[in-house]
Amino acid sequence: MPKDGFTIGLVQMRMAADKERxxxxxxxxxADAAKRGAEVVCLPELFTGYYFCxxxxxxxxxxAEPIPGPSEARLAAVAKANNVVVVGSLFxxxxxxxxHNTATVHDANGELLGLYRKMHIPDDPLFLxxxxxxxxxxxxxxFTTPPxxxxxxxxxxxxxPEAARLTALQGAEVIFYPTAIGWHPKEKAEYGxxxxxxxxxxxxxxxxxxxxxVAAVNRVGHExxxxxxxxxxxxxxxxxxxxxxxxRASADRxxxxxxxxxxxxxxxxxxxxxxxxxxxxDAYQGIVKRVAD
Length: 293
Hints:
The protein is α/β, with parallel strands linked by helices. It has five helices and 15 strands.
């Protein structure tokens, strides 16, 4: 029988330009989370370097690595050394000309359980991901680990209720969102509060609609590759199945959040709000159309 709960760790990081420094910092943070009781630890999106999608530069494809590969091997080793499940996020080179924004999941023995390739790819100012990433082709995935059934989505996936629902339907007890999101500095005063609120509210809605835990794991810091760059707003958080934020990191500091998740709370929420029972699966055909006209 599963335990009454499980404990997760969120690593909110400030990235350096140097991959080795970021890998070493991630290893220290994972070890810290494990010592504090975390059984599953998640890193931010593309944590091995600066968020390079601020500009379109073919030379930056050189940052990509195969999986299995060197950074993946470091994640495997730190998972095994600390007896903890690790959710990573890497720029994957699948073959020449095909690259993905990929989440990795390693079991506590260091085994690579599998990959999730980011399905929704944005193309906004300074978030020029369509230039770099082929959309994912593995579908929405849940990984069964001894602590919990772990769902993995990535950043822009945060805005899509379909992604959360299809992940939850596979039994996810927690949905992790490795993330790199922030403000254009010139827009922060006018739009910043509303943008961050919408981001958090969207994911809290996924937690409520699916009766599951949701964990968003962001970076912090001001990274300038073009113009004024991006100011990453941190704010990593965990929502319980009722949509309540049970832990939230700061906007500007590196932090490791460790949060206990209660399976009974999931059960109670789903009994009282039985959304899965009441789904009209006979009436949803329109959802697979681009426009229901």
